[in-house]
Amino acid sequence: MKLKPQEIEIQNIDHLGIVAGIIDSIGIVEIINELIGVEKDEKVNAGQVVKAMIINGLGFVSKPLYMFPEYFETIACEHLIGTGVKPEYLNDDKLGRVMDKLFIKGLDTIFFIIAVKAAQKFGVSLSTSHLDSSSIHVHGQYNTSLPEVIFENQKIGNNQELEEIAVKSPKEITITYGYSRDHRPDLKQFIIEMICSGDGDIPIFLKLASGNQADSSCFGQIAVEYHKQLEVNSLMVADSALYTESNLKMMSDLQWLCRVPLSIKAAKSLISTIPESEFIDSYIPGYKLVSKTEIMQE
């Protein structure tokens, strides 16, 4: 059937068709719906809301939540998000309810599940993993306390009726002063702890921490938690903050690789006694390397 010009509607998708396609290939909508649940008769589900937020975030625009519907009126909403999803369904009330559910479920858990699924989908090897942290500075005042419990509506029994359930609050972090990686010690901050795949540097594990947390106090626990969830014996690579007595005991069953800090006398002594002639050129210009084996006494 030939359409008349006045019957043709043209909608814009820009680069967002690629974004939506990758979201669909990973199965992010289905993962979110499985974790959060789907409510009866809802016009747009939690997975579709998350998909919409990703598309908006990668759409090179800055729109507050209350202007979400206006943004999706400018693009092919149903084509990108799902059949029957209209811009007015993506209002700030719906987005807020979904974000509350994501927070209660645990954003680090959700991130990990999606990242591992993406790695499996696109053949990313997790045989080696790289652990590090970074600080993010912020401006203004922040409330760093949470109530002991959060009330959430959950479906109970076979009748699928909603009942208000008390859920224990996630552990809060403290936005405070600490060692600033971005050279702003005058501002408060929080810490992002991240593990990336050695293959392609794909973020796999993400956790937020208080702004004054030291890497040496938590890297071992993060490595153990990561391997427990991953269920793959991945070689953990990190900087010298990993090398502490408590971390090494914690990681006794793991494979790990890090530089021994020169604050340890044996390491400093060994470095000072290696002749320069034993160093060989690295493939990285300006760097040389040497390998030594030393048995450390407990």
Automatic annotation (TrEMBL):
It holds the Pfam family DUF4277. It comes from Microcystis aeruginosa (strain PCC 7806). This is Similar to N-terminal part of Q3MFC9_ANAVT Hypothetical protein. Residues 9-115 form the DUF4277 domain. PANTHER family: PTHR34614, TRANSPOSASE IS4-LIKE DOMAIN-CONTAINING PROTEIN. It comes from the Bacteria. The lineage of its organism: Bacteria, Bacillati, Cyanobacteriota, Cyanophyceae, Oscillatoriophycideae.
